[in-house]
């Protein structure tokens, strides 16, 4: 797998260099073709949020073009680590700019924010958030919780974070069998992101999301409390996200 990823990286950089230095259209077309499956893979994760798959693919392709044009060849980074967050970032902007045009009441938006926070809190405590629990904690009806979750389909998009509710994302695919290009790319991205973690933290992440152990079980294995395991997972997610997601001052993951 690592050898395959290295070969892909070398070919990506070769094609980028040819296109950027010579304007080689054939290299550009091949590069677009190589990453189109990844664009489609990301787009499928956003289906059901008010947009058709092919429309999302077109948005993702715009992100891919921006990545091809914006990647800094002078820096020793992998193109896939720049392209992935650029593509998903374009999709997030699309939903942010267009999806809120749907008449979603302000109160519903506020409830959705509270709902996400409460789900995360319950998960950190080692529990599984249910509709009844959420309604009781938030002092709303179960119907309101369900409505908020449905509304979330419009504006709650996947990001590089550990799952706290029903959404699934690239981190949640760690160690899971998948087909074709996505398996290679997800594994490739995760391995790259996990290089910023200590051996202990990397082991904790793998036990939670590859081996599917409970936080309590992980704590017993690494001799820390369940609360410490929760903090390790939160901090690891933040570090991995920071490593992969570009910022205005640092467009490529360091």
Automatic annotation (TrEMBL):
Record keywords, A-Z: DNA-binding, Sigma factor, Transcription, Transcription regulation
InterPro entries: RNA_pol_sigma-70_dom, RNA_pol_sigma70, RNA_pol_sigma70_r2, RNA_pol_sigma70_r4, RNA_pol_sigma_r2, RNA_pol_sigma_r3/r4-like
Keyword set includes Transcription: yes
Name of a matching Pfam family: Sigma70_r4
BP GO annotations: DNA-templated transcription initiation
Gene3D superfamilies tied to this protein: 1.20.120.1810, 1.20.140.160
GO terms assigned for molecular function: DNA binding; sigma factor activity
Domain RNA polymerase sigma-70: 55-68
Protein name: Unannotated protein
Protein source organism: freshwater metagenome
